[in-house]
């Protein structure tokens, strides 16, 4: 039976220049491969070693990129290795099959959100009303499913995210702070639900996963084995769980380590 590998992308497998965490002397820094260009500028990277590992992984297991990015943002990424047959975007709101949205899956997600959560318009309006323009740089609606703010972290009040999370909790939404972005996401909109669907379709009996943020926690808990890097929301909070390995590596070298762990586990399934 195939092994399914579902991995978050940003700050898990791929890294912006600000997130690389290259703490070693310059002559010892790893060679980097650009895997995303935005507005004619390089945006995201992985090490060349990680690129080779990901190519091997694509030949060994069913690799499923699993991201909160919108479809448009995901399609900017040019990962090495065979093109994934499945990809999960918008935190599970879109299941792509050979690059095309599965319309039935998306309709089912929309129906569940309408039934179980406060409407997106209410949450978006609250974000606009409660956030201070002094530290907000952008307000975005993603795929008509969730909202996020791009903020100046240095100016963000210490308790604002916690207060937003309490407000959102009562309305069936969750809040996550990732880098300069504050996400407000409906609780039923999960990566894990979409990964389970891919596992059903592929017949996978072993699921491996990795992620760094609060929005990845459900994905890690749903997997048979999981890894989190030494940076990000989960590491900062000390989050752990059975079958989850907390790695010490931070930045782009954590992405390399995660891919090594994926390959080892996929080649020697228990």
TrEMBL record:
- Give start-end ranges for the coiled-coil region(s): none
| Gene3D superfamilies, A to Z | HAD superfamily/HAD-like
This one is known as HAD family hydrolase
Please verify whether the record's keywords include Hydrolase: yes
A molecular function GO annotation: hydrolase activity
- Carries keyword Hydrolase? yes
Keyword terms, alphabetized:
Hydrolase
What stretches pass through the bilayer?
A: none
**InterPro entries in UniProt:** HAD-like_sf, HAD_sf, TPP-like
């Amino acid at each position: 039976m195939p092994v399914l590998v579902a991995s978050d992308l940003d700050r898990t497998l791929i890294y912006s220049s600000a997130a690389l965490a290259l703490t070693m002397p310059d002559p010892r820094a790893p060679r980097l491969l650009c895997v995303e260009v935005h507005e004619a500028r390089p945006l995201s990277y992985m090490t060349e070693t990680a690129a080779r590992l990901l190519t091997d992984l694509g030949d060994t297991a069913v690799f499923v990129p699993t991201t909160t990015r919108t479809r448009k943002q995901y399609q900017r990424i040019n990962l090495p290795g065979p093109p994934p047959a499945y990809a999960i975007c918008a935190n599970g709101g879109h299941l792509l099959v050979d690059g095309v949205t599965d319309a039935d899956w998306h309709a089912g997600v929309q129906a569940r959100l309408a039934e179980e959560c406060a409407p997106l318009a209410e949450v978006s309006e609250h974000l606009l009303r409660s956030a201070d323009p002094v530290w907000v740089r952008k307000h975005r609606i993603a795929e008509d499913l969730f909202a996020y703010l791009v903020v100046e972290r240095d100016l963000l009040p210490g308790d604002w995210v916690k207060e937003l999370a309490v407000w959102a909790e009562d309305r069936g939404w969750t809040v996550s702070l990732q880098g300069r972005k504050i996400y407000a996401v409906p609780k039923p909109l999960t990566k894990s639900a979409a990964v389970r669907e891919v596992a059903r379709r592929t017949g996978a009996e072993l699921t491996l996963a990795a992620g760094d943020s609060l929005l990845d926690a459900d994905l890690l808990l749903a997997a048979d084995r999981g890894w989190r890097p030494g940076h990000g929301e989960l590491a900062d909070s000390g989050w752990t769980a059975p079958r989850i390995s907390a790695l010490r590596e931070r930045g782009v070298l954590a992405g390399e380590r995660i891919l090594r762990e994926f390959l080892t586990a996929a080649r020697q399934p228990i």
